[in-house]
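Need residues for this backbone.
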């Protein structure tokens, strides 16, 4: 019996030792495990976003946390300014409340007249947030505003800058010179009456005209505005026939078109445009052209400048000069290179 008691004693001691090694049930923290798991999940999320941001270089960090703006299609009305197709992604430029806006677009506005908007037109657009990959660097992704569709609500009838001047480097003379810059985007929209009005005011004002040869090998004077309006060259049959046809009901304009002036860049006395603005009012069938003109006399080292406003009234197949106003002349002395020898090359 003493042996059995000894065994039971040892079993009791082992039981007490085992019980003392276990934690009390009241001390167990069952909430610790979910807390650790939740913290780990948040760290994983943060790491994923940071990795995504490092890979994509998105413009907006907020959009990284919420993809819903990319799926939302929004509508708005803006004032159209112009299209800019000079980059890898083509952009529609507009403004609202004085703020300039830019949207990536996809349509062909030259072929599809529904999208051939004029500056100042009020247009209704559908757009959404989107992402684009940059050409040449596919790893870089930028957040942009993409316009899905657009529709003109109202014509703007704003003054459009047809011509301005910029200082540009001229390789032929190895110097920076003032050059005329013509709005090529506007030419995609130009109507026949507007073409006539611009062709008329440029008829007797120099516009960077240089001598060359026509398709038949004959000497011809090619002028920037005449060429831009697709009227061939100065005093060509194309130019004269086009203008005389449209001004067939305007006897004063026809008198002006009887003779054709030749004003090359090499002329001793020459005039040129510093700026041309044009406005077409479809409701009143009128076209207004505002221009700033400078005339230079190389022999006398003098210049004079003035502004001019011409108002045209047009119909389906004719146009008339309704009014023409000139400002007072502003004369000034000019400092010319004494080595310059102007050539009065008036053919």
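Answer:
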């Amino acid at each position: 019996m003493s042996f059995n008691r000894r065994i039971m004693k040892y079993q009791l001691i082992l039981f007490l030792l085992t019980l003392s090694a276990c934690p009390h049930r009241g001390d167990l923290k069952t909430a610790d495990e979910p807390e650790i798991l939740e913290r780990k999940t948040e760290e994983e999320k943060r790491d994923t976003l940071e990795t995504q941001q490092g890979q994509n270089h998105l413009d907006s960090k907020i959009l990284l946390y919420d993809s819903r703006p990319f799926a939302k299609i929004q509508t708005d009305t803006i004032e159209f300014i112009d299209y800019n197709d000079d980059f890898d992604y083509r952009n529609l430029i507009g403004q609202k409340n004085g703020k300039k806006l830019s949207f990536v677009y996809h349509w062909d506005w030259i072929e599809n007249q529904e999208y051939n908007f004029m500056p100042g037109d009020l247009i209704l657009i559908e757009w959404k947030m989107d992402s684009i990959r940059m050409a040449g660097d596919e790893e870089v992704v930028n957040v942009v505003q993409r316009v899905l569709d657009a529709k003109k609500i109202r014509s703007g009838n704003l003054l459009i800058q047809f011509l301005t001047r910029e200082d540009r480097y001229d390789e032929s003379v190895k110097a920076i010179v003032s050059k005329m810059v013509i709005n090529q985007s506007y030419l995609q929209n130009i109507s026949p009456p507007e073409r006539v009005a611009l062709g008329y005011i440029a008829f007797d004002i120099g516009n960077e005209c240089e001598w060359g040869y026509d398709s038949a090998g004959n000497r011809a004077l090619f002028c920037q505005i005449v060429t831009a309006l697709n009227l061939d060259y100065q005093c060509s049959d194309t130019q004269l026939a086009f203008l005389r046809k449209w001004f067939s009901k305007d006897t004063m304009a026809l008198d002006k078109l009887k003779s054709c002036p030749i004003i090359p860049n090499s002329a001793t006395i020459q005039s040129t445009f510093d700026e041309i603005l044009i406005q077409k009012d479809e409701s009143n069938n009128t076209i207004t052209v505002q221009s700033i003109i400078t005339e230079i006399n190389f022999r006398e080292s003098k210049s004079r400048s003035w502004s001019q406003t011409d108002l045209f009234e047009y119909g389906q197949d004719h146009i008339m000069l309704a009014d023409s106003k000139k400002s007072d002349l502003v004369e000034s002395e000019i400092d010319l290179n004494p080595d310059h020898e102007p050539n009065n090359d008036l053919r």
